[in-house]
Design brief:
Chain lengths: 111, 116
Amino acid sequence: GENVEQHPSTLSVQEGDSAVIKCTYSDSASNYFPWYKQELGKRPQLIIDIRSNVGEKKDQRIAVTLNKTAKHFSLHITETQPEDSAVYFCAASKGNEKLTFGTGTRLTIIP
Amino acid sequence: SAVISQKPSRDICQRGTSLTIQCQVDSQVTMMFWYRQQPRQSLTLIATANQGSEATYESGFVIDKFPISRPNLTFSTLTVSNMSPEDSSIYLCSVEDRDRGTDTQYFGPGTRLTVL
């Protein structure tokens, strides 16, 4: 089955700097890659997703890039703010099939 | 996106007992899933709740321990049976509406279970 690895497990950045979280997947047939943000005590919330027919997608300060050849995708957060502090999960699926989640990255924004 | 609710939001149970968790969606959805999230861990899929038929369980999860019902397109239950302290976790349902052409999953608020 699909295996998703996520790095780093923890990340601290100064407020205003950028944060990058990387994931790799094993199944070349995977074609849907969402990112979820989970604040303490809250449910995971979808923040952005990308499908395999595009290489990059951006939504304000958040962007996701996908390299199908290398089977990795990354989350980029620019101009980080304290409210960006959370745990971020990447996931992969073949579309219309179950999601396989990465192990999560705890992001801390230092004021 | 669909509005998803779960009951109870939290519970403390004695070992050997069972707890049934409910997941309610405000619109009909094709797919419903149940996940477990142990403390400071990732999300692990327990099973896919299939409307009108038996749930599809992931490796390591069995129906006797986690029976699931899905009587219609807006509701599902997960029962955690014969609980032990190792079952202490957050249990989340999620939904996906493939009839609308999307495979995006949205999560319920979760049920925090503590087993003593």
